[in-house]
Amino acid sequence: MTDEEALNEFINDLTVIKNYSPNTIESYKNDILEFQAFLKTEKMARGLLFIRNKVPQNYVSYLSRKDFASTTIHRKISSLSSFYDFLVKENLFPENYFIGLDEPKIPKRLPKVISTDEIQMMMDSCDKENKLGFRNYCLLGCLFGCGLRVSELCNMEIKDIDFRERTIQIHGKGSKDRIVIMYDELASSLKHYITTFRVELLYNSGSTENRHVFLNKNGTTLTRVGVRKILEKVVNDCGETFHISPHMLRHSFATALLNKGMDLRYVQELLGHESLSTTQIYTHVGYETIKKSYSIAHPRAMKIDNKKIKN
């Protein structure tokens, strides 16, 4: 089997079996092709199917010398590890040499969030008498009110929404479905948008087949790039200059719930995280909230506080 054939089989597995998004698949493919180019340039092996066990660690060292960020190196190695895992399972390679490598440590950074006041300001700036303005209002409501990934927002269809139960079935990463909850006002706004302004937008496309919830001005499905441009426009309409991304609204959603005392496991479920540790890294809780929770929950802290009150 050639390198090209092995790569094509892996891409087919990501597409058909794992149902990964086109952007994710393209990222995997680029990482593997870069490694293939490294093997050729450095004369490390005849190809992807002929590497020896020391080659992966040499590749990590090479990437480090090239001043790639530690997060980028981890992503590239993760892509290659997934590729060789596939080859091993298909009996095309003896062992995955990318497991257990000595990689540069990733610094833990708190995610960027925006305040509830800033979010309210953005939603207030949307012209709800205008079809695009009302669409933007609902879009913000879904990103911040449901904690959706931008790809989940773009892929959401009308059939996924249960207005009676105020829930949306989300088709997440790796074909993992979950249910998210809508607050009352978001549910009524979405219903109004779908039955009025969305119909007007769909008319612009000349087709009635599209069932996606969020459409662009031409009546076709809104893209990830389109969502980012909408957020930039909303911020500009507020007269502000701060940077915002769909993921920041997802961070802000999780942080707001945790700061109000929601159990981390519930937040994990709403975000669609497989691991609780991912949710812990993904969100952060204000220090004052932690102190307050500690004072309420810890028996010694409660006793000391009660004595202070009596004195």
Description:
The chain is mainly alpha-helical and 311 residues long. Among the domains are: 3-89, DNA polymerase, domain 1 (Orthogonal Bundle); 116-242, Intergrase catalytic core (hpI Integrase, Chain A), CATH 1.10.443.10. The chain is 59% helix and 4% strand. The protein has a 3-stranded antiparallel β-sheet with strand order 1-2-3. A hairpin with a 5-residue loop joins strand 2 and strand 3. Helix 2 packs across helix 4 (70-89), helix 6 packs antiparallel against helix 8 and helix 6 crosses helix 11 (246-259).
Features of this protein?
about 60% helix, DNA polymerase, domain 1, three-stranded antiparallel sheet, hpI Integrase, Chain A, mainly alpha, single chain, globular, about 300 residues
- Share in helix: 55-70%
Low-confidence stretches: 306-311
CATH architecture name of the domain at 116-242: Orthogonal Bundle
State the fourth-level CATH superfamily of the domain at 116-242.
Intergrase catalytic core
Mean pLDDT: 87
Number of strands: 3
What's the shape? globular
